[in-house]
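S.,

Sequence below, as promised.
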Amino acid sequence: MEVLLVLIGIVVVIGLIAVLWGVGVYNGFIKGRNLIQESWRQIDVELNRRYDLIPNLIETVRGFAAHERNTLEEVTRLRNSAAAMASQSHGAPNEQRAAVEAELGQAVRNLIVSVEAYPQLKSNVNFLELQRELTDTEDRIAAGRRFYNANVRDYNTKLETVPSNIVAGFAKFEKATYFEVNDAMVRQAPSVNFGEISSRPGVGQGSQNPSALPNPGQFNQPYSAPSANPQQQPQWQQNTPPPQQGGQQPPWNTN
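The prediction came back faster than expected:
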């Protein structure tokens, strides 16, 4: 009888420990889920701030850079698409929205890079202020995305790890969604077409004609002995600089 009571006591203690452990794991899942939601709200605030800043940027650039019409229309289209997708998903993150937001950020950066060719726009106070605010917003979005994805990684790892996955299965916790882009094309850095910029009207006026610039070769005339024919010298010898005066050795021959 005493042995039976001891066994019952052991079972009860083990059961209490298991219950307490399960409660702790459950509370950990709740804490991780709330942390993910809080970190996402920070990103959502910055994304909505970007939605508000872009129309002002479009109108400011349109007044000085009418030739950027295609770029402005693309930025406007992506902004409207991202805002509509955010409304449809009720602010929740998903891979499709992450891709659209990444394209929008890329388009805004391309626009800011392209308008660097317009001196009047670069000196406009409104544009400079919008550029600064958008840059700060993009930095906060990037920092918030890293913080959010780190919380998602920790939560999902705990969700799939034994034995905490047992509690997750009973409580029906679901995996959280990363807010990142898996498309390699979207991840590419923005490209700048300098030929297009140089062909815009009013861009680069007042600069010197490249054909009128001095030839850099005339400042680096090949050195040759008085009796040598420069035309018969090999290419490596034509580019050899003259020996320095004063007995100083060249920096590559200091031994």
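The CA atoms of residues 195 and 254 lie 45 Å apart.

Coffee later?
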